[in-house]
Amino acid sequence: MTKYGVATIFKDREVDRTWCSTKQEALRRASYGKHRRYIGTKEVDLYCEACDKDLEPGDVYIKRDEDTRYCKDCYEENSITYYTVSGEPVGDENDIEAYDDFDLEVEQEENNDTEV
C-alpha cells in the first residue's frame, strides 16, 4: 500500500510527520501552512504483526501505528475498548485504530501517481 507524507519543518528540522492514504489528502494538509511540506511516498506492507498473515483492504484489523497491525484472529477487544494480542496489551481506543469492511484504511485509486 502506498502512503503519502506531509512533514512540518521548523529551522531545517522535521518536527512532525503524517502519512495520508491519498495524495490529494497529503497535498491538502501540506497547504495548511508555510512550514508544512509534501515529502513523497512510502510503501507499507499490510500484514499482521503477530501471525504474519497478509491483510487486504476490507479485512478486519487494528492499527497500532503506521507499521504495526493485528488481524481479527490475533487481537481481543476487552471492556472499555482495550485490545490485547496473545494476552499482552497493545493499546486502547485512544491509541489504536480499528478497520473493517465499512472503514477502509486505504482507498482504491484509479492511477498510481507517486511523485509530485
List strands and helices in order, with pairings:
Blueprint: E1 2-10, E2 13-20, H1 23-30, E3 36-43, E4 61-65, E5 68-71, E6 75-78, E7 82-85, E8 88-92, E9 97-99
Antiparallel strand pairs: 1-2, 1-3, 4-5, 4-9, 6-7, 7-8
Question: Can you tell me about this structure?
Answer:
This protein is mainly β and 116 residues long. It contains one helix and nine strands. The chain folds into two domains: 2-43, no CATH class; 46-104, no CATH class. The strands form three sheets. A three-stranded antiparallel β-sheet has the order 2-1-3, with helices on one face. The protein has a three-stranded antiparallel β-sheet with strand order 5-4-9, with no helix packed on it. Strand 6 and strand 7 (82-85) form a beta hairpin. The protein is globular, with a radius of gyration of 16 Å. The model has no long low-confidence stretch (mean pLDDT 84). This is Zinc-binding protein. It comes from Enterococcus hulanensis.
